[in-house]
Design brief:
Helices cover about 5% and strands about 50% of the residues. It is mainly beta and about 240 residues long. The chain folds into 2 domains: about 50 residues, no CATH class; about 140 residues, Porin, CATH 2.40.160. An 8-stranded antiparallel barrel has the order 3-4-5-6-7-8-9-10. It has a two-stranded antiparallel ribbon with strand order 1-2. A hairpin with a 2-residue loop joins β8 and β9. It is rod-shaped.
Length: about 240
Amino acid sequence: MLLAPIVLLAVLGQCPDPPSRYGPPPCAAANVPGCLPGYRRSLDAHGRTVYVCAANASPAPAPAPQLPGPPTSELGAGGAPPPPYAPAPQYAARYPTAAADPGRRGMLGLVLMPGASTVDRGHTGDATGAVALELRGPVGGARLRFGYEFSREVHAAEAGLKYDFFDRGQIRPFLAIGVGGASLAQDPGWSPSGSISAGLDLYVVRDIFATIEVKRRAFTHDTRDGFDISSVHQTSVFAGVGFYF
């Protein structure tokens, strides 16, 4: 008589509650004559054994869909993805090129310089004009210089080196030296000469500049033993403008 309700519930697809939640339900042991099917063994949140009715058990959750992973060839050891690497650093070109710098500066310059000069320590002065060609590289402050000066007292042609101390910026101080030949009105004929000068270039734009220059020139004269340094010197002051192409 006691088994009648249990049998009825089993037929209807339900399970009676076990006498103890943590003990086996009626006839839960396998292969026991008269035991009723319908219970299964499970574990609760604390890891303890419980018995639940198989008919009322919730269905197992469907497996989560597998997302496509990286190709096997891209996986590291053990199937793990490779560690991320920082991109290789990009280094700027040390020197500008025509492709990297479409506004490359001009290298051939024409400089026009009116001014005044004296050959007797300032007692008299003469109007003087000078014209020069300058050659410079794509970078750097060095220039090759070829110039010609003319006044009533002196004509001179020289080649030399000019150096701007700053390769960038508007204001660029410079020093220059030159060697060549000169002709004095008081001593006709050409003799070796040399000069040294200092000045300032003021760049209005990249290839156009104004210039101020002070120059000191020494002369030689012919003697029986060859050329000797003359006591005559020329001091000149110029203010002009230059253009690079």
